[in-house]
Specification:
Elements: E1 4-9, H1 14-27, E2 33-41, H2 54-65, E3 69-76, H3 79-90, E4 94-98, H4 104-110, H5 113-120, E5 125-128
Parallel strand pairs: 1-2, 1-4, 2-3, 4-5
Helix pairs in contact: 1-2, 3-5
Length: about 130
């Protein structure tokens, strides 16, 4: 079986990080996939790197402890388009990200990175479920 590349998009949200980590581990065997972990900064005045964020560290450490090969990437700009661009650059077979359950009004008023990725992706997307 050939190795697949999974792009895992990680926000700053710790709960999303936990759900995404568990979803990847539940769906894939470590020897079947390579993980490209990406965080997109919309603003970064402190000059932090993605690897310094606790949510990114959590996903990376969790998956590495489960024997997955993980490479951390960081982007700057509008999150949905940057995640999709990273997926194209890595030739990812699939994108995995966390999502939140929100009201219809909340989606219309505030938009949704997950919703934009689901709508615009040219490859499969797995959305780790939000809390109920």
């Amino acid at each position: 079986m050939s190795t697949r590349t999974i792009l895992v998009a990680v926000s700053r949200d710790e709960d999303d990080a936990i759900r995404v980590s568990e979803t990847v581990e539940r769906l894939y065997e470590a020897d079947e996939v390579e993980i490209g972990l990406v965080h997109c900064f919309t603003e970064n005045p402190e000059g932090a790197s993605a690897a310094q964020l606790s949510s990114v560290r959590h996903v990376s450490e969790y998956l590495e402890e489960a024997s997955f090969d993980v490479e951390v990437h960081e982007r700057s700009g509008e999150p949905a388009s940057e995640v999709l661009e990273a997926a194209a650059e890595l030739d990812a077979d699939l994108v995995c990200l966390g999502g939140r359950r929100r009201s219809a009004a909340g989606k219309v008023m505030f938009g949704s990175t997950a919703q934009a990725i689901l709508h615009d992706a040219d490859r499969p997307v797995v959305l780790a479920p939000g809390p109920t």
